[in-house]
Design brief:
About 20% of the residues lie in helices and about 30% in strands. The chain is built from three helices and seven strands. The strands form three sheets. Strands 3-6-7 form a three-stranded antiparallel beta sheet, with helices on one face. Strands 1-2 form a two-stranded antiparallel sheet. The longest helix has 14 residues. It is globular, with a radius of gyration of 20 Å.
Length: about 140
Amino acid sequence: MPKRTPPSAQMSLSLQDTRPPRVTLSPGAVVLRGYALPQAEALVATIHTLAALAPFRSMQTPGGGTMSAALTSCGALGWVTDHTGYHYTHTNPFTQQPWPALPELFLHLATTAAQAAGFKNFTPNACLINRCSGPHGLEPTAI
């Protein structure tokens, strides 16, 4: 008699997300759930390109500790921290070069997300990218 696959192994366990795609937390604070997902692959590829120009680095905090997230930036300014404090710079302190330009993909995503959140005249000029250790390895997140 042939082996039968248990019915549970044949079921799809992927459930549809029924949460609302837009949630206003308070005036000026909006969650746009899944907003960037359609562009996820292109965003990750762009982050890899940026990291080749301005590598991720684990920075020292003013108190002497090392940040758990590695960071890089793009656009007119980059966020850095060292023994003197937290600040923005026009140049990458590790390469002494200007930060890479803000990619068109990031510019478009930030502008359209801001518009969807009610900020009609927002124009981004910089992006901080964190690489955090997660359950699946290193995962970049852009702010």
